[in-house]
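Please fill in the sequence for the structure shown.

STRUCTURE ENCODING:
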């Protein structure tokens, strides 16, 4: 009798853990690496890093997001407004970007304090 009760409880907790793990995986952040060959020839991306000015980084992120959407299986569903992605610039530096308006050429916001220089674990302050 105790074994059967334990089995029912174990089954319940297994499904709870499976659901939580699936939910956490589904909310994962998109990582776009601009060192990939399809992003290397974009004019706003080629020389961009977290040291570049904010406008250049926003334009580069918008170009990368547009190409990511165009090459995905569901272009209108990938990177919708409010979604967040992390971009790795050609020099290896990275930062987090939030999509605000996919129809705009600068329809994204750079997350303050998310910039990381290449080969460094500390955040870089960009003004």
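FILLED IN BY: designer on duty
SEQUENCE:
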């Amino acid at each position: 009798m105790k074994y059967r009760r334990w089995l029912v409880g174990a089954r319940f907790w297994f499904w709870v853990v499976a659901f939580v793990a699936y939910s956490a995986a589904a909310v994962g952040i998109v990582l776009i690496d601009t060192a990939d060959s399809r992003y290397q020839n974009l004019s706003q991306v080629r020389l961009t890093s977290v040291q570049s000015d904010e406008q250049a980084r926003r334009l580069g992120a918008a170009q990368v997001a547009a190409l990511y959407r165009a090459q995905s299986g569901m272009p209108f569903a990938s990177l919708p407004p409010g979604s967040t992605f992390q971009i790795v610039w050609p020099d290896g530096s990275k930062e987090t970007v939030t999509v605000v308006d996919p129809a705009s050429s600068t329809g994204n916001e750079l997350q303050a304090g998310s910039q990381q220089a290449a080969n460094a674990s500390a955040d870089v302050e960009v003004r």
